[in-house]
């Protein structure tokens, strides 16, 4: 299937680097027995496109050349220098996770087709477990203990956020004239603290579909949802990940519907037939509009933070837009990477890459590491990590401030280098 699809992506011939990457990916996919997952996702995507539904894979799946060749994603990971191990890694020993966005107003067509194709005895959405939060816990306990509605509302509003701070709790209670020595009030607070985090009810995952070979109801409890013609399993996505069930994310994105309607208008009004792949990649007038921060209603760059950064960064290419979206995030901001990048982009500071290896990795971002893939590549080329170990490093970097623990192999590589 991949071989047959290659000419569509590379009509002038497939580069050797792409062939090598595809071989590497297919070897790993075969070794880990993930082929059924890729085939299933491809089947769903191709069905949606056969109905004219605009859809697009996103997330770490964009690091896969196989996904790109099969048209599940639209970014060439080899040309962009993306690492497949960010998506699938033998060391991580986790099933792949391909998120596919569909037009929001037509996603239900895809969902119902999945039910028809695989059968309701083999397909269901994941549940989400909604848990008690402080304010909700106070309301529920107050209701059970017979407190007046206005009293529980006052407690939830003023005391819900300070249940774990005795001094602040006492001060807030005095402000609203509550005596916490009252037996029922003290009991309400005590029970509410115990209830926080306890499961309250099940909801429906936005799009996590579980598909099984055996009957689903022989593996996990299944129940209907409030929405007609849908059913969910009573476990959430974390349970599914642990049990290694096949899960396909069928998500909705309103902007894809907007794009489809734009294409239809172009065809109706001007006779211009266009799709996502045919959009001119580097239109000067579009980038001039973006550089003026005239982006209200433009997906990904319409927030106040993005609009304030656009006149400073002045994107001129698609890669500039990639940087623009990435730089307005907590990681680069907290890591003090934004201002060095802007100074270097404006020519006020020279890029600093101490070695040719780092130049190859960080050159496009002027010596400033902005992407997780860059951190992985630095670990591979400068510290001797394997791609799988580099992915573990990436994941550990995200949790280090919570755990304080280095990733596996970090100390060994630190000592050896």
UniProtKB/TrEMBL annotation:
Domain of life: Bacteria
Keywords: Cytoplasm, DNA damage, DNA repair, DNA replication, DNA-directed DNA polymerase, Nucleotidyltransferase, Transferase
Keyword set includes Nucleotidyltransferase: yes
Keyword rRNA processing: no
Residues in DNA polymerase III alpha subunit finger domain copies: 255-401
Residues making up the signal peptide according to the UniProt record: none
Pfam families: DNA_pol3_alpha (PF07733), DNA_pol3_finger (PF17657)
UniProt-recorded Gene Ontology molecular function terms: 3'-5' exonuclease activity; DNA-directed DNA polymerase activity
GO terms for biological process, alphabetical: DNA repair; DNA replication
Every Bacterial DNA polymerase III alpha subunit NTPase domain range: 2-252
Protein name: Error-prone DNA polymerase
């Amino acid at each position: 299937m991949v071989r047959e699809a290659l000419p569509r992506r590379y009509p002038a011939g497939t580069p050797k680097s792409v062939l090598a990457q595809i071989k590497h990916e297919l070897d790993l996919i075969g070794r880990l027995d993930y082929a059924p997952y890729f085939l299933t996702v491809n089947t769903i995507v191709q069905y949606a496109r056969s109905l004219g539904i605009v859809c697009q894979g996103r997330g770490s799946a964009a690091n896969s050349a196989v996904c790109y060749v099969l048209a599940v994603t639209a970014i060439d990971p080899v040309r962009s220098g993306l690492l497949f191990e960010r998506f699938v890694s033998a060391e991580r020993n986790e099933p792949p996770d391909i998120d596919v966005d569909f037009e929001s107003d037509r996603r239900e067509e895809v969902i119902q087709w999945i039910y028809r194709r695989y059968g309701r005895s083999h397909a269901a959405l994941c549940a989400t477990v909604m848990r008690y939060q402080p304010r909700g816990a106070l309301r529920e306990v107050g209701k059970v203990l017979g407190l007046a509605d206005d009293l529980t509302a006052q407690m939830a509003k003023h005391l819900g956020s300070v249940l774990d701070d005795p001094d602040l709790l006492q001060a807030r209670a005095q402000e609203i004239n509550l005596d916490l020595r009252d037996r029922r009030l003290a009991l309400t607070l005590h029970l509410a603290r115990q209830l926080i985090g306890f499961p309250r009810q099940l909801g429906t995952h936005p799009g996590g579909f579980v598909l099984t070979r055996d009957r689903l109801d022989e593996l996990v409890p299944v129940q209907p949802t409030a929405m007609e013609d849908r059913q969910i399993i009573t476990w959430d996505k974390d349970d599914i990940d642990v049990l290694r069930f096949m899960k396909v994310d069928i998500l909705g994105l309103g902007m894809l519907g907007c794009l489809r309607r734009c294409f239809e208008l172009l065809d109706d009004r001007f006779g211009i037939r266009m799709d996502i792949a045919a959009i001119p990649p580097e239109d000067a007038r579009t980038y001039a509009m973006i550089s003026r921060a005239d982006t209200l209603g433009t997906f990904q760059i319409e927030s106040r933070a993005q609009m304030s950064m656009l006149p400073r960064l002045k994107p001129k290419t698609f890669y500039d837009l990639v940087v623009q979206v990435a730089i307005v995030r907590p990681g680069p901001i907290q890591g003090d990477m934004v201002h060095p990048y802007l100074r270097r982009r404006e020519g006020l500071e020279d890029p600093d890459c101490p070695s040719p290896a780092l130049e190859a990795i960080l050159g496009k971002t002027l010596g400033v590491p902005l992407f997780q893939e860059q951190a992985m590549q630095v670990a591979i080329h400068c510290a001797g990590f394997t791609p799988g170990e580099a992915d573990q490093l990436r994941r550990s970097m995200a949790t280090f401030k919570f755990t304080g623990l280095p990733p596996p192999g970090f100390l060994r590589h630190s000592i050896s280098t």
